TrEMBL record:
Family: Belongs to the HAM1 NTPase family.
Record key words, sorted: Hydrolase, Magnesium, Metal-binding, Nucleotide metabolism, Nucleotide-binding
Biological classification of the source: Bacteria, Bacillati, Bacillota, Bacilli, Lactobacillales
Oligomeric form and interacting partners: Homodimer.
Top-level taxon in the UniProt lineage: Bacteria
Residues binding substrate, per UniProt: T8, K9, N10, Q11, G12, K13, S70, F151, G152, Y153, D154, K174, H179, R180
Protein name, as recorded: dITP/XTP pyrophosphatase
One cellular-component annotation, GO: cytosol
Active site, renumbered: D69
Length: 197
């Protein structure tokens, strides 16, 4: 079995990468398997932030790695929280972030609550060879939390395609339609060439 390093501290993301890479014969390691690293996500785009995460790991470990930067893009908020989704309410606190989102959208009617999740995945090798892929999923922001699966903003995100909240989906169902799943499927189209090249 081969090993792939995902440069993430987020256990929800790590679980999804394990689920998606296991059938491909890869064991997934994450930042928690190595000595602590400080990563300053101060880029101006999803791709810049994903690159900052993966560069930190590749420089330290001298091994190929993958990172993703993701976020919730809400139309009524002019695209916020976007690249600031993790620290939208201050600390990296999923429950506080969801509460702030509900407050900010309190007076926004259903037809104006459109949103999408976005993921940019960046793969980087010690020789500098980079692979980038993007994915999204469209939906609406609910008026209260629905469902207990997933993580982050999932209980507030109504998936248009499946007519239920993201947190009501099984892991397999989420990976099949999610921003991260879609980005990873794009990424895998060129993975062999990047990994072996
Ligand atoms: O940077 P790493 O260590 O990977 O972990 P993170 O949680 O900080 O991840 P991001 O920087 O990409 O921030 C993304 C934010 O959007 C949320 N998010 C990302 N993917 C999500 C998903 O699939 N469902 C719900 N919320 C998600 C997540 O909870 C964070 O608050
Ligand atoms: Mg982060």
């Amino acid at each position: 079995m081969q090993t792939i390093i995902i440069a993430t501290k987020n256990q929800g993301k790590a679980r999804e990468y394990r689920e998606m890479f296991a059938p491909l014969g890869f064991e997934v390691k994450t930042l928690s398997d190595f000595r602590p690293l400080t990563i300053n996500e101060n880029g101006n785009s999803f791709e810049e932030n994903a690159t900052i995460k993966v560069e930190a790991v590749v420089k330290n470990l001298n091994l190929p790695a993958i990172a993703d930067d993701s976020g919730l893009v809400v139309d009524a908020l002019g695209g916020r929280p976007g690249i600031h989704s993790a620290r939208y309410a201050g600390d990296h606190d999923d429950a506080a972030n969801r509460a702030k989102l509900l407050r900010e959208l309190a007076d926004v009617p259903d037809d104006k609550r459109t949103a999408h999740f976005h993921t940019t995945i960046v793969g980087l090798k010690p020789d500098g060879k980079k692979l980038v892929a993007n994915g999204r999923v469209d939906g609406h922001i609910l008026h209260q939390e629905v469902g207990h699966n997933g993580f982050g903003y999932d209980p507030l995100f109504y998936v248009d395609q499946l007519q239920c909240s993201m947190a009501q989906l099984t892991p397999e169902q989420k990976n099949a339609i999610s921003h991260r799943g879609n980005a990873l499927r794009e990424f895998m189209k060129h993975f062999d060439e990047w990994w072996q090249g």
